[in-house]
Amino acid sequence: MNQEQGTRPSPDLKIIETRVYRGPNIWSYDPAIHLVVDLGSLEDFPSNTIDGFTENLLAHLPRLDQHHCSRGKKGGFLERLDEGTWLGHIAEHVSLQLQQEAGHDMRRGKTRQVKGVPGRYNIIYSYADEAVGLAAGELAVRFVNHLVQPEPDFDFTTELERFIKQAERTAFGPSTQAIVEEAMSRDIPWIRLNKHSLVQLGQGVHAKRIRATMTSETGSIAVDVASDKDLTTRLLASAGLPVPRSDSVRTVDDAVSVANRIGYPVVCKPLDGNHGRGVCLNLQSADEVREAFPIAADQSRRGWVIVENFVTGKDYRCLIINGRMEAIAERVPAHVVGDGQHTVAELVEITNADPRRGVGHEKILTRITVNAAAVELVRSQGFEMDDVPPADTMVKLTLTGNMSTGGISIDRTFEAHPENVEIAEEAARMIGLDIAGIDFICPDIAQPVRETGGAICEVNAAPGFRMHTHPTIGDPQYIAKPVVDMLFPPGTPSRIPIVAVTGTNGKTTTSRMISHVFKGMGHKVGMTSTDGVVIDERLVIRADASGPKSARMVLQNPRVDLAVFEVARGGILREGLGYERNDVAVVLNIQPDHLGLRGIDTLEQLADVKAVLVEAVPRTGFAVLNADDPLVRRMRRRCSGQVVWFSVAEAGSEVREYIESHCRRGGRAVVLDRSDLGDMIVVKHGRRSMQLAWTHLLPSTFGGRAMMNVQNAMAAAAAAFAAGAPLHDIRQGLRTFSTSYYLSPGRLNEIQVDGRTVIVDYCHNAPAMRMLGDFVDKLGDNLAQSSDIGRASRIGVIATAGDRRDDDMRELGEIAAQHFDVVIVREDVRLRGRKAGESADLITEGVRTAMENGARCRQIETVLDELTAVRHALARSNPGDLVVLCVDQHQTVLTELESVSHLAQAGARSGDEGGDPDFVKPDEPKSEGEPPTPS
Question: For residues 148 and 50, is the Cβ–Cβ distance under 8 A?
Answer without folding.
Answer: yes
